[in-house]
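Quick one: structure tokens for this chain, please?
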Amino acid sequence: MRPLPIVAIMYDFDRTLCTKDMQDYSFIPSLGMTEREFWDFTNEIWKREQMDSVLAYMYAMVKTSAERGIPLLREKLVSMGKNVEFFEGVEEWFDRINAFGAANGVQIEHYVISSGMKEIIEGTSISQSFRCIFACEFLYDENGGAVWPKTDVNYTNKTQFVYRINKGVLDISNDLDLNRSMPDARRQQARAVQQYDLYRRRSERRALHEDDEGIRRLFDRRLPEPRQQGRGPAPKGQGGLYLSCRLQRGNVA
């Protein structure tokens, strides 16, 4: 049987699927800090030390936790995912679009490419909807405490994960296959990658949740270019949903 064409949908997370930065729901309150205090502290480190902004917020998480004697444990971060709040319709979206794809002869795959925390995303109600989650992650010691950034997903290196999805090399430790020449027949060819800023176009987001015709419009038309958007006080990424049509063989009409 001929394989179905694959449509890979790649999502940012904070302010795209959930309503604000994921640290704001549980992590920052657990420190006894306000959102503004934490992100101002992060920005201060970022600018003073000329750091990568994502590494700056990860360092701020480690430092503020240590100063308060609060262990930064992986299991604790995962448990915080249950408090993440999503935009209306997000939790129902995946089953709806999967069914729509099946009815139209394509296989839908969902991926996250986010500057947020992988651990928190894993604890959310929608985590099982994704084939793979590419996001920031800590390395942990033998006691489960965070000691070092294991993965840093910033503005520019997000493109490497699109490339990984395109080639089907999802293990981020597998650079050998990622760099190996791959025949076009084996490559999961990307037909198009566009970004759709759900946070910006709220009326269209509502339309997507209200009827299947909205989903059809999402696939049938060229998606608008996103605007530049800051994050909370901390510039940790911009909201967006990325669509990539990948195929096993043949062309997608």
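Confidence is low (pLDDT under 50) at residues 188-209, 218-239, 244-253.
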